[in-house]
Specification:
Length: about 80
């Protein structure tokens, strides 16, 4: 039984990594678009809206809002770095 739980977590972790890779690929393309159209990478209002939306999703799904906020702060920081490349 313990191994089944570990296998389930491993599969979910793989899915998370694949989804993060997809997100960063979209961020890369977004960065190209922003550069071509002279749009700044950072938009505080958009970032705040993303964090707030995901805090609500966290709350609605039984996850800690602070946990998800910290997670998205890291994801958004990496996304900005990816867009600047």
């Amino acid at each position: 039984m313990l191994q089944k739980f570990r296998d389930d977590i491993r599969k979910i972790d793989e899915q998370l990594i694949l989804l993060l890779a997809q997100r960063m690929e979209v961020a890369r393309e977004l960065g190209k678009y922003k550069k071509a159209n002279n749009i700044p990478v950072f938009d505080a209002d958009v970032e705040a809206a993303i964090i707030e939306r995901n805090r609500r999703l966290a709350h609605n799904n039984g996850l800690g809002e602070t946990f998800v906020q910290r997670l998205y702060e890291v994801i958004l920081e990496e996304s900005k770095k990816t867009q600047q490349k």
